[in-house]
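User: I'm new to structure prediction. If I give you an amino acid sequence, what do you actually give back? Let's try with this one:
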Amino acid sequence: MKKDIMKHPVIDLFAQISRIPRESGHEQGVSDWIKEWAQERNLQVSQDDIWNLIIKKPASKGYENHPAVLMQAHIDMVCEKNRESNHDFSKDPIELAYDGEWIRAANGTTLGADNGVGAAAALAILDDDQLPHPPLEVVFTVQEETTFAGAETVDISTCEAMQMINLDHADERELIVGSCGGTGVEFTMPLEREPAVPQGMSGYQIHLTGLQGGHSGEDIHRGRGNAIHLLMRLLEEADLPVVSITGGTNRLAIPREAEAVLLAENRRDVEQQVAAWKAVFQKEYSGAAPDLSLTISEAECMPPLTEESFRNVTAAIRLYPNGIVNMNGNLEGLVESSDNIGIIETGENQLRLVSEVRGAYQSTVKDITKTIEALAQLLNAKVSYFSAYVPWEFTADSRLRPLAIDTYQELFGEGMRELAIHAGLECGFFAEKKPGIDLISIGPDCQYFHSPQERVRAESIEHFYELLKAILQKL
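Assistant: Good question. You get back a string of structure tokens that encode the predicted 3D arrangement of the chain. For your 475 residues, that looks like this:
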């Protein structure tokens, strides 16, 4: 490994991007920075009202008559952090830490390699005046991690390219040829509370931590556990009045933590339940969550949920689709459809669940939402949908796919695996905007997206960049 790996053009640009807050929905700062960066290099750049960018660079000498190619990445990120981290995503830069193999965030947060490394690679290509290449059209989108509003609304009518390389994958040896569609779901149900705190009761907070979490699509099959589900199992069996339940921070991340406030006549009753369930959970998740922990602290006494309301909460969590719904019958080992309960909140008089439904086909996404609607009808709840996105379906005819596979073999002496992934990429929107466009997605080795354990392998960034450059030279 090179000692100066952090000076690699892609990693250096990624470090610069990482110093600019870019939580999904708050991308103006990084968008403005990229716009100014492009203008300093006399590149044609346009920026729309929600901070999407399109940058164009003419072909290098000898490539003037070659067909244009579009590269695309999103500039927003998921902002998750460990409970003990005091990082403020609205203003603090993300510092990079390198251990000789992997790059991660230095302060207990998500890294933003998803999709900062892809954006940095596109910038590095634009900055390289020695690279032979066809006309380049680079699209940087916003809000990929929340609403897909960037890819949905960006106007690419001025783009000529009918071949596109998406830079948002997480394994350098994989060539992505399709992705799922999906939708965000909000489920709200009325709750009732007892008129007062039962006499002689004290309040206690139970806090479940230590799960790995991860991407709600790409990691849904890894058996890492959902903190909301685990905590509800404890509460159901504890048979103690429950005041509140909260857990998760983002529907796109498998919940790593959850907490509840309940009432008991003495602390020992709670301690016994916690000790028993801690042993159960540690046994069940000994490999997937070796740091799993359950802790107790004193909490303010407030009127608990009525028994009927808590039964309804239990029913909602038990019956709401969560985890894998179907495996793909055409591609072995691939999840076809799933749902992830990413957020639970019990307010004064309402339960709120937020989930992400994913499916390789619009029909299977609809099938899951019908199940949620049936549950809502039974529990007098309401369902609303947001941030829907379309699947990118595999097409047989492609020039890019065999070119990328052959190029990787030439460079590194091994093949690439073609696959569709159980995650939402923006490619589906571009396929709709430009019917017949030839699409692939590539990226470096990244792990633990949407969690503070997120990391990217430094040498793989080099490989990813070399592959991208070599493909462009052949187009």
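You can read the tokens as a compact description of the fold. Here is one thing that stands out. The longest strand covers residues 335-346.
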